[in-house]
TrEMBL record:
Binding site for Mn(2+) 2: 41, 79, 114, 195
Lineage of source species: Bacteria, Pseudomonadati, Pseudomonadota, Gammaproteobacteria, Oceanospirillales
Protein family per UniProt: Belongs to the LpxH family.
Domain Calcineurin-like phosphoesterase residue range list: 1-199
Protein name according to UniProt: UDP-2,3-diacylglucosamine hydrolase
Enzyme Commission numbers on file: 3.6.1.54
Length: 243
């Protein structure tokens, strides 16, 4: 069985090239019987299952076709799409996973997550994360009209972009101690995550010779995915064929 992992597509109507890359991935790379893990920030923002971003129906159809053909699709929340709910999972034939989940792979157990919770040096962001993951905050937000939610989401995105431009690059990366503690707590030697947009395979994350961390890449005209099968683990980038 093949296991495919993707994150950080940031799908949005303003970026049709990302739609094209993901549709190519679903048509030509993912196969019936694969297990597909969507590790957060699949959407640039998500204001509720009742108000999806425009133009996503064809992608939802492709995902549903994949799941109907025998594939398993799993979704973890990112910092942009933490309001994805069960209605969307029903639409695509997927299943929501907790934000830290240990899965079985051919080479042994692995911990998967979006990865933003590992950026503990960014104190302001962690405070914001705690706020928006609160069930009361989410209920209040979702009770507003789609137009109101859209306005709030755009304002939050703008503030995030402004603040991100003022932060040191190191602050927005994962904290090594947080990585080690998280892997040790879950009893795993492999961690797979996205969020930082810095695709790479890191070794020695727990101690010398122990602990591998695979960071997924963000998408543009090209895409990134991790393929895990009986032959090993491969972090792959691709560019769709020209029409």
């Amino acid at each position: 069985m093949r296991h495919l992992f993707v994150a950080d597509l940031h799908l949005q109507p303003e970026r049709p090239e990302i739609f094209r890359a993901f549709r190519y991935f679903l048509d030509h790379i993912a196969k019936a019987g694969d297990t597909l893990y969507l590790l957060g920030d699949i959407f640039e923002y998500w204001i509720g299952d009742d108000a999806p971003l425009p133009g996503l129906s064809p992608l939802f159809d492709q995902l549903n076709t994949l799941s109907s053909g025998g594939s398993s699709i799993y979704f973890q929340h990112g910092n942009r799409d933490f309001l994805v709910g069960q209605a969307l999972m029903n639409r695509i034939g997927g299943k929501l996973l907790p934000e830290e989940t240990v899965i079985a792979l051919p080479q042994g157990p692995a911990l998967i997550m979006h990865g933003d919770q590992l950026c503990t040096d960014d104190i302001a962001y962690q405070e914001f994360r705690t706020l928006v993951r609160n069930s009361d905050w989410q209920s209040t937000f979702l009770a507003q009209s789609p137009e109101q939610r859209e306005a709030i989401a755009r304002q939050m995105r703008q503030q995030s972009q402004q603040q991100g431009g003022m932060k040191a690059e190191s602050i927005m990366d994962v904290n090594p101690e947080a990585v080690c503690e998280t892997m040790t707590r879950h009893g795993v030697e492999l961690l797979i995550h996205g969020h930082t947009h810095r695709p790479k395979i890191h070794q020695d994350q727990i101690s010398q010779g122990r602990g591998e961390r695979i960071v997924l890449g963000d998408w543009s005209e090209s895409g990134w995915y991790l393929l895990v099968d009986n032959g090993g683990r491969r972090l792959v980038t691709f560019t769709p064929d020209k029409d």
